[in-house]
Amino acid sequence: MTVTVRFAPSPTGHIHIGNIRTALYNWLFAKKAGGTFILRFDDTDVERSKREFADAIEKDLAWLGVRPDRQERQSDRLSAYDAVVERLKASGHLYACYETADELERRRSRARAIGRPPVYDRSGMKLTDEQKAELEADGRKPHWRFLLPNFESDPHGIQRTDVTWDDLCRGPQSIDLGSMSDPVLIRESGSYLYTLTSIVDDIDMGVSHIIRGEDHVANTAVQLSIFRALEATAPVFGHHNLLTTIDGEGLSKRKGALSIGSLREDGLEPMAVASLAVLTGTSQSVEAVPSMDALADRFDLASVSKSAAKFDPEELNGLNARLVHEMPFEAVQPRLARLGIMADETFWETVRENCAKVADARLYWQIVRGSIEGQVEQDDLEFLTAARNLLPEGQIDEQTWKAWTSALKSETGRKGRGLFMPLRKALTGLEHGPDMQAMLPLIGRQNILDRLP
């Protein structure tokens, strides 16, 4: 089977790390199988869909290294949906309903009050042509529902009807269509809901596998029924667990929770984001994977847990730091230059272990370039004066620190923290940082003397 998958976001806001989890699962699945990844914008909601959001989604995916093999927009395919709608109406699979949202809610409330499930009773199917004409004369417009195949001959004789499939993530699944309302596929405005447009696209584009969040599990039974009504072979489904905050709250695109754009602007590495998004909530350990190829090797839908995947954003910072600590100078040099750091490999090798983000190197560049003031405590003035006098002559190199502190120890009797900390604070302005043995040659003699009293 030729693998074709799709990621179908609505361009109505900025996507977050939970959305990217779905995109990456699809892209990695296609990558491992040598298949095709389609980026398909669900942009039929004209009022809320914005080109700026679509552009941002493309940028976010590209930042992570995800480049679609094909791109589609549902707004370009309205004629295809129109044709399928006429086909479903002609076959009796779509029927018109005229209830308002308030009327439907009152019916659901009454059903709950008497202990019945709030399932739509198919009243729309009982309307005569005359009654429909009267409703439309009063200004009502119909919405259209898909008739679920949960009956034998009488649509009002609803019975248990199990739809089953073998889920790539969750194993054997079964949903009872008899417990569900007929889904609305066309709004009163005449616009199409995602359920319809997605299925038409999946058929026309040859989508072989649908990998998405577990919040769509119940929808799958409905969609399988629509595929059958259209006499089409349904894709293989896989429903992965959802990412939540550490407190168990769901992520929201509208609230901008952990948006990919904000993570990028914060200076995080794309592979830190990808590693967390893919590996959290699986049986595999969450590690900082250095490349998409390596992540593809580890990717396995069977390892996805059935429970929610909680994660702590602080874990993202830890993954990021581990990636930065392993970065070779050749990989980071252009980025350092964009930050105004015209450094050599020695500088990067010295400071990278103390950088949680590449941008953190700016602090150490300021230190070695001389644009900081050291911290000098009153109690350390005499000690630091002695340090100035005992600074070894000649070139400052990696042997200087050991010779200098040995001489100071003999002269002042100080040792340990009392010996090293005043020097570090005076020369770097910090209480912690890179190894002073390596930093001292970078700081240079003149900066050392300028910072000592």
TrEMBL record:
PROSITE patterns: AA_TRNA_LIGASE_I. A motif ('HIGH' region) lies at residues 9-19. GO terms for biological process: glutamyl-tRNA aminoacylation. Its main location: cytoplasm. A motif ('KMSKS' region) lies at residues 250-254. GO terms for cellular component: cytoplasm. Its EC number is 6.1.1.17. InterPro entries: aa-tRNA-synth_I_cd-bd (IPR045462), aa-tRNA-synth_I_codon-bd_sub2 (IPR020751), aa-tRNA-synth_I_CS (IPR001412), aa_tRNA-synth_I_cd-bd_sf (IPR008925), Glu-tRNA-ligase_bac/mito (IPR004527), Glu/Gln-tRNA-synth (IPR000924), Glu/Gln-tRNA-synth_Ib_cat-dom (IPR020058), GluQ/Sye (IPR049940). Residues 377-452 form the Aminoacyl-tRNA synthetase class I anticodon-binding domain. The keyword Nuclease does not apply. ATP binds at K253. It catalyses: tRNA(Glu) + L-glutamate + ATP = L-glutamyl-tRNA(Glu) + AMP + diphosphate. GO terms for molecular function: ATP binding; glutamate-tRNA ligase activity; tRNA binding. It is found in: Cytoplasm. SUPFAM superfamilies: An anticodon-binding domain of class I aminoacyl-tRNA synthetases, Nucleotidylyl transferase. Monomer. Belongs to the class-I aminoacyl-tRNA synthetase family. Glutamate--tRNA ligase type 1 subfamily. Catalyzes the attachment of glutamate to tRNA(Glu) in a two-step reaction: glutamate is first activated by ATP to form Glu-AMP and then transferred to the acceptor end of tRNA(Glu). This is Glutamate--tRNA ligase.
